[in-house]
Amino acid sequence: MGKKQRNEFTNREVEIIREHYPTRMPIEDIVALMPRHTYDSIKQYATRELKLKRPGKAITWDALALLLKVKPRTKTEIAAFFGVSTHCVGEAIKEHRKKVYIKTYEVVKVKGRSSAVWTLGNLPDAPAPGRRRPRSRNRVNPFLAAAGMAQIPAGATGRVYKQAMDVENEAVA
């Protein structure tokens, strides 16, 4: 097998990347300006070599308020509607936190976690549901037995080892 060939970027292509990559220009249009390179090669060169970043997708407050006016929604539902990440939704909510509140919590089917349902208004947030951990029935607190507040369970569980405690000189030698 031969060595993988590398398609170097020309000075003009570097100028195109520097000019268009940090903007909201669709990446497909940037790739169309440089047909010799793939999306992945452009992205890697821009981020690793040129240390450039693409701007994140932003949600305007007007659009978010209009959506929440219709119906209260979770971050996941808002993210799916706008086609952005839940992190982006969280940033938009954090920016306008005094204008929205948590109406209730909804149990999500994935891992049984609860998700906040956001709506417009300036009311106090609904209390977060507590997480219940089932406690083992057979669990005994050893400190209660030491304090004389609980009876020590009778009967041996597990293996019981018996060892003679008298040491003979012959056994030591």
Largest sheet geometry: 3 strands, antiparallel
Under CATH, the topology of the domain at 61-120 is which? Arc Repressor Mutant, subunit A
CATH class of the domain at 61-120: Mainly Alpha
Q: What is the correct CATH architecture of the domain at 61-120?
A: Orthogonal Bundle
Shape, principal axes of CA atoms: flat
Q: Can you list the strand order of the major beta sheet? A: 1-3-2
Strand percentage lies at 5-15%
Secondary structure: helix percent: 25-40%
Uncertain segments of ≥5 residues (pLDDT<50)?
none
Can you count the helices? 8
Q: Give the end-to-end Cα distance, rounded to a whole number of Å.
A: 69 Å
Compute the CA-based radius of gyration.
32 Å
N to C succession of SSEs = HHHHEHHEEHH
| Overall average residue pLDDT | 82
Q: What structural class do the secondary elements suggest?
A: alpha+beta
CATH homologous superfamily annotation of the domain at 61-120: Winged helix-like DNA-binding domain superfamily/Winged helix DNA-binding domain
How many beta-strand segments? 3
Put the structure in a nutshell.
With 173 residues, this protein is of the alpha+beta class. Helix content is 38%, strand content 10%.
Task: Describe the 3D structure.
With 173 residues, this protein is α+β, with helices and mostly antiparallel strands. Among the domains are: 11-49; 61-120, Arc Repressor Mutant, subunit A, CATH 1.10.10. Helix content is 38%, strand content 10%. The protein contains eight helices and three strands, in the order H-H-H-H-E-H-H-E-E-H-H. The chain has helices at 11-20, 27-33, 39-49, 61-70, 75-82, 86-95, 142-146, 169-172, and strands spanning 73-74, 100-107, 114-120. A three-stranded antiparallel sheet has the order 1-3-2. The longest helix has 11 residues, at 39-49.
